[in-house]
Amino acid sequence: MTEIESKLLQSLRASNLRDQHSDRANDQPTTSTRSPASKPLGLLYGDLTDAIIGAAIQVHRWLGPGQLESTYQRALAKELAFCGVRHRAQVPVTSWYRDEAVGEFFADFIVEDKVILELKVVSRILPVHRAQLVSYLRATDLRLGLILNFQVPILTMGIKRVSP
What are the structural domain ranges in the chain? Predict the structure, then answer.
């Protein structure tokens, strides 16, 4: 495991422990001993994207690069479920023009009805991949998407946050 992956997993574990402790204390807030550098500041859905990225790292560590996109999708669905993250796979989304349906596409994942995940197995993320995800975000009125490219040696090198 790389240093980046190790730090991310430590951050996820600390977040999960804090959340469990908070639930036990009748939802009273607890103070965190986490350093500011271990928590993304000001990121939209930061805790949720931490969980998503942690699940994707687990899948990438297990399967490595070189699999088909559909293989990563099935494995990520299993990992998200294992982590208790609510998600839907291959979600049909309709494209509209002047109040008429003109097409349909399938989002790889919609997570917690907040984040769209677009999985890729490509040598590098291109502007067209970002444009595709922006189109999905606009069609669904969601505010955040993640491109996860599994064709990299370290998954964190293949992640791109996208907003419309």
Answer: 3-162
